[in-house]
Amino acid sequence: MSPLSTLTEKIVAFRDARDWQQFHNPKDLATALSIEASELQEIFLWKQPSEVAETVSKKREHITEEVADVASFLLLLCNELDIDLIAAVELKLEKNAVKYPVDKAKGTHAKYNEL
């Protein structure tokens, strides 16, 4: 069993012990994921690029907790929808390699249709 599968099992066991599965439909999991990602963004809101390193240093524990929340809801959503996260990311990388070839995309933030 992979470390990701083991972690997912722990999260599911935590959820199930509290009878929270009833609240964890795909819509609500996607919403929770978005909210937690927004809470992570909020930590950096209005910070100048020069302030980011200090923010990370001062708020590392809070950032870590928000990252954990994002990851937990993502893993629960994948579990609910029977999505293999590793396979999904690998497939997306393959697709993006075609859309963003190194010779055209290197060093630019342009979208694939603007390369």
Description:
With 115 residues, the protein is mainly alpha-helical. The chain folds into 2 domains: 3-83, Helix Hairpins; 84-115, no CATH class. The chain has 6 helices and no strands. It has helices at residues 3-17, 26-44, 52-58, 60-81, 85-99, 102-105. The model has no long low-confidence stretch (mean pLDDT 97).
Write the CATH architecture name of the largest domain: Orthogonal Bundle
CATH topology of the largest domain: Helix Hairpins
- Judged by helices, strands and strand pairing, the structural class is mainly alpha
- Radius of gyration over alpha carbons? 18 Å
How many beta-strand elements? 0
The first-level CATH class name of the largest domain: Mainly Alpha
Provide the succession of SSEs: HHHHHH
Low-confidence runs:
none
What is the CATH superfamily of the largest domain?
A: MazG-like
Domain count: 2
The amount of beta strand, in percent, is under 5%
Mean pLDDT: 97
